[in-house]
Amino acid sequence: MNSPVLLIDTPDEKGLIHTITGVIYHNNHNIICNNEYVDHETSRFFMRTEIEGECDTETLTEELKNRLPEGCRIRFASQRRRKIVVMASKEHHCLGDLLIRNSYNELNADILCVISNHDLLRQLTERFDIPFHYVPVEKLTKEEHEVKVLEILNKYSPEYIVLAKYMRILTPGFISSFPAKIINIHHSFLPAFIGANPYRQAFERGVKIIGATAHFVTEELDEGPIIAQSVIPVNHTYSANDMVLAGRDVEKNVLAKALQLVFQERVFLCGKRVVIF
Amino acid sequence: MNSPVLLIDTPDEKGLIHTITGVIYHNNHNIICNNEYVDHETSRFFMRTEIEGECDTETLTEELKNRLPEGCRIRFASQRRRKIVVMASKEHHCLGDLLIRNSYNELNADILCVISNHDLLRQLTERFDIPFHYVPVEKLTKEEHEVKVLEILNKYSPEYIVLAKYMRILTPGFISSFPAKIINIHHSFLPAFIGANPYRQAFERGVKIIGATAHFVTEELDEGPIIAQSVIPVNHTYSANDMVLAGRDVEKNVLAKALQLVFQERVFLCGKRVVIF
Amino acid sequence: MNSPVLLIDTPDEKGLIHTITGVIYHNNHNIICNNEYVDHETSRFFMRTEIEGECDTETLTEELKNRLPEGCRIRFASQRRRKIVVMASKEHHCLGDLLIRNSYNELNADILCVISNHDLLRQLTERFDIPFHYVPVEKLTKEEHEVKVLEILNKYSPEYIVLAKYMRILTPGFISSFPAKIINIHHSFLPAFIGANPYRQAFERGVKIIGATAHFVTEELDEGPIIAQSVIPVNHTYSANDMVLAGRDVEKNVLAKALQLVFQERVFLCGKRVVIF
Amino acid sequence: MNSPVLLIDTPDEKGLIHTITGVIYHNNHNIICNNEYVDHETSRFFMRTEIEGECDTETLTEELKNRLPEGCRIRFASQRRRKIVVMASKEHHCLGDLLIRNSYNELNADILCVISNHDLLRQLTERFDIPFHYVPVEKLTKEEHEVKVLEILNKYSPEYIVLAKYMRILTPGFISSFPAKIINIHHSFLPAFIGANPYRQAFERGVKIIGATAHFVTEELDEGPIIAQSVIPVNHTYSANDMVLAGRDVEKNVLAKALQLVFQERVFLCGKRVVIF
Hints:
4 copies of one chain form a homotetramer. Chain A is 33% helix and 29% strand.
């Protein structure tokens, strides 16, 4: 993915595709790949366009702004890899998977550091020469702990924060500092089994399928817009702990898939839902 | 499936498999297929045994009862097809699928009649020469309506009642008359989206996967033991109505699968969960 | 789906989207839904556009033809339901599913008649008031049999022929009379298990997943462009016959899905592959 | 899994379960989990029994041998982790996944070393403190190269060899030295796309689903008994290379799943198929 990506999100009106592609065409650019969608609930039009070669994004943005409706959002996605910080607690599977993908440049992102409320994942992280910051919670209020986490985050200035099985609930204040920039993996097929111990809940309910959900974090617990979900079958022979083990592969794959979609600029927020191209 | 099926559900203790297979062996029978499972939550042992040829089920039951722990349940499943009544409302897809399977003897059951609170599915049902009973709800309380339904049910004495998109909530009184004998298809991946309009709920939550759940009906709405579940992927281009249409194929397949499992005597109740062999 | 659908398939060049949407816009039409794709293997551009309301398709076609590259194909899909003939042999599951969908207008098509080389599916077909034509093969060469089938087909002039488990191999001559107009369901995950008895082959190979494939029929057996595929898990307890039974639900769903895609004009041929919007 | 596992594979006869569980019961052992299966193609009976606590496996084996039919195979699986060697070529995803699982003791195995015909995966391997042996192929015949590989293998005496995207075809001589002890991941849904470049083949055939297959290696290329398979959907927008990337997650998960099954002693060979408990 080396071509610039034009991202437009605007109130719908007749002729938008013609107008937008006109600006691109008259500036002598070729479109490699184009997707558009009108959301009928919100009457907003979404378009993602990969343009061949380099282009003067300022000129194009200016021209587009002049021709598109009030309330449009126009953005050119940079081709740099995103800068991200990963937060995790005790479980290694999502973090380990991200570290390997990161070391082979498969994420369209660079992991700047790992932050954890436990010291268990230090060795794994450091095997990949990534800084590991242990921020213990002992004797701290939730807010005090977050202040310490924020200090580290501020040092790195990440574009996204990835919660790779970070098991503490963040405060609304923390979340609102990173709007649509925190991505979490929840170990259930949301909205089933919100909150703690979803596999235990799943076991007790006797479900025949379990899953995982990657979503943007908003102030409501486990209620943020869903980016990706996946499931696997289980049966009566699975204990709650067997479900935990079986769920790991789903969790890590769903998180990686969601990150790829977001970091390739394929995801638009649309109220509580997302549009994915 | 022509061999008798022995179904045992008993408090666990050492040597059960040896004891049970001993009774079968000493009565000179061969086992075609055997499954057993110990549920560690309840310490109960479950076993399903297909026996070759005919056997004197009374003698075997007697001998088994003498050797198994207090609290055991021993049952030989008859080889007759189950007698069932299907209840439906307006949607044809589950009923239509069952009628075709029934007409080719694929259900291990015979549909005795169809009962509906609407008159819409009469033609479909009668195409297959199955009696259709329309019980309108107008001017009736829920209880009065159920009395009329029960009158019809009593005439047919079904072994199971299948709710093939029957959209009225049954009263606890009705349900308790048919313990573990009513099977429902719910149009969501339970426990997500309990209650009305699950596809609308799914659309609004922006889920990426929708599903269906076949379960035994208990007095708590949508809380009965789950027999089968299945899912399909959806995306942002699906309206709530598109999800309804896409969900139909999942619903009919999950319901048919659950019925096959139950009617082949592969399903044991185990608290709020089921054991499926 | 009541809006006219514009289908364009043309050699790729810069500015195509702008040009095409310009013709639509200057004729004062609104686009409801648009998809486009460039196939890099063949350098062809594909576009499918749903237009709001009625439109003068002749004028639009003329204008488009004047502006698009040599070699373009422009077509407006009519909003009528397609006229189809279903051919089947002995198995009822695909035919039964299509008959029910047909009777509720779910196919975007009307089944004109059913043709079979056996007389087994007559009752099922006639339950739905669809003409059934039995064309026995006894004492006929393959070509003679096809002549009799063609006589019936000519009487009905279908736009598509659906092979719903029609188990005779058609001659190249027959197939070439209906280019890209015959859709078949093959009971394996092609290209695995081409030819006869795929479930037996699958059993012997010990596969852990079985599937079904809906494809356009071309002169090479089981080699036509694939429209849809689906799979289900199996295990060592499945006999070849169990696979046959389990495969039925996959077959009927995949066939129905492929027909929906084709009859909604979402499928473009692109060499040996298809583009699906 | 700390309990001893008894594995029996014997010609079928009446009373086998009773006989075997009798030996266990009379030696005063409790069965935690039991599975059995009769393969009707070969008339062989398979049984896997987890026994609670420690047991005198020699005595039990002796007693069982005296009571079971000629041709029976009786084995107690040791509770040690298996010793394995991983062979890989250039791709890191399967190896990386195994190294992480290994470092957290999730494989029921210990990776003794990695052998490769390239020097590319050295850093990844050594991050996890596992010896890496580079055996270049330049100027060597296939046999000469294998001699060098065998020298290393002999030094480690692994119980299993895992081909984690090792892209050279092994000679029959090499394979026959490790009967049913070499496990390979093939990057297609076998038997579709045997041999080289399966994703290219899949792209050209226009399939809508791609997959991966873990299997025992036998002398016939890609024809060994299948242990596990999995698939993912693809569509016309996937190039052959996109399929390669998308296939990676399937490959690594299927390989890991197959290894877990084998290393937990859940897999019996049964001709060209496997029985999995």
